[in-house]
Structure formats: C-alpha cells, structure tokens
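To the wet lab folks,

You asked to see what we're planning to order before we commit. Fair enough. Below is the target structure as tokens, and below that is the sequence we designed to fit it. If anything looks off to you, flag it before the synthesis order goes out.
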C-alpha cells in the first residue's frame, strides 16, 4: 500500500489518500471495475478534483491532511481500512444501492463508500466540523446542515438502508467489521451533495484512533 496526495479545488491544499497497488499492474486496465471507480467518483466529488484518475491503484481510505495524524496507521490498521472499503461497497451492491451510508435515500448510485482515518483526537459527538476539517472538507460544514443519522439497532447500519435484516453474507461481513468500532455514530451534511460519515473508535493497542466510512448521496 502507498499514500498519495491529490489536488483539491483549493489550490493551496491537497489531501492524502491510501492506495492499494496489489491489484494494479501499471495500467488503468487492471483496475478492479465497478466498486473502485465508484470510490474514485466519491473522492473526486468531495474534493472537486479528478487528479485521482492519474494514480494507478485501488483507493482504500481518505487520510488527514496532516501526515502527523497517521502515525498509528500501521499495517494492521491499513488492512482493516482495506477490508472496510471493500465490505461496504460489496454490502451496498448486494442491497442494490450505491452507498451503504446513503442507502436507498439517494437518487444516484455512482458514488461508493470509502474508509477514512482520523487518528487519535476528540472527534466525539459535537465535533463534526472538526471531522470534516481534518479531511479537508470543512467547506461542507460551513455551507451545509449537519445532522445525526439514526442507526438501526437490529442491523447496526443507518436507517437509510432497507432490507438489511437477515440479509446477505456481504452485509454480515460489513457488520462484523463495524463491531470492531466502539462508540459508532453516523452523521450527514447536506449541500450540493449529501456527505455521510460513519465514525467509531478503533483499538490500535496504544490509544484509540477514530476511523470509519464516508459516502455520498444525492437528494433533489
């Protein structure tokens, strides 16, 4: 795996993305098709940049703007993020939606979910603007409306998702991965698109780090 910076709509800033190049052999033709392109679409949409298209590899996670915040991101954590992105997109596909966070409330299915890593810090409830700012997405907090998204007790997934009770093996795999996160919650920020963020505390063996998923939805 490797980290790369991509440009954003703000020329003074760039954002880090964790990539997996184990499935890439140096050409775009070797990219895994649907889910990988859906994740790329999400990253391009939230950051207003298509420079990610120039990077060969499978995008795994959004990382903080500051490289100092990624110190706890060891090999085990990177593997967890890889599994989380893969499982979220597989679960969404099994339920016929683009994002497992936006679920069936979204009118578009071209945006996939991508893992995110914030590292240690205070990202508990009430600090949603800090979460977005750490990922270079503070403009959503400035211009959008932040609100909690309820999580269904039966499934551990947002209530935006239909049909998850007794669902597929893909959904069960995602649920098992999410159980490793403590204090899970989901919030959304509405704007030109709606950004959904699932967050929880991941045990790194030292001090907990905040991680989760980011997805997009489109509502008219």
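Sequence we intend to order:
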């Amino acid at each position: 795996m490797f980290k790369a910076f991509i440009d954003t709509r703000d020329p003074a800033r760039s954002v880090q993305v964790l990539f997996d190049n184990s499935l890439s052999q140096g050409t775009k033709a070797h990219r895994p098709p649907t889910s990988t392109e859906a994740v790329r679409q999400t990253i391009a949409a939230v950051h207003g940049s298509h420079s990610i298209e120039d990077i060969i590899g499978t995008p795994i996670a959004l990382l903080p703007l500051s490289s100092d915040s990624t110190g706890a991101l060891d090999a085990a954590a990177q593997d967890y993020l890889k599994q989380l992105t893969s499982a979220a997109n597989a679960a969404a596909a099994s339920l016929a939606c683009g994002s497992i966070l936006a679920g069936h409330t979204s009118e578009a299915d071209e945006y996939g979910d991508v893992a995110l890593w914030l590292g240690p810090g205070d990202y508990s409830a009430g600090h949603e603007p800090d979460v977005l700012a750490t990922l270079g997405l503070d403009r959503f907090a400035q211009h959008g409306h932040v609100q909690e998204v309820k999580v269904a007790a039966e499934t551990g997934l947002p209530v935006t998702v239909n049909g998850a009770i007794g669902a597929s093996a893909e959904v069960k795999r995602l649920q098992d991965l999410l159980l490793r996160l403590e204090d899970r919650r989901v919030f959304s920020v509405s704007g030109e698109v709606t950004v959904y963020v699932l967050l929880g505390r991941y045990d790194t063996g030292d001090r907990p780090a905040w991680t989760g998923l980011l997805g997009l939805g489109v509502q008219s």
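Structural context that might help your review: The longest helix spans residues 75-94. The CA atoms of residues 184 and 200 lie 4 Å apart.

Thanks,
Computational group
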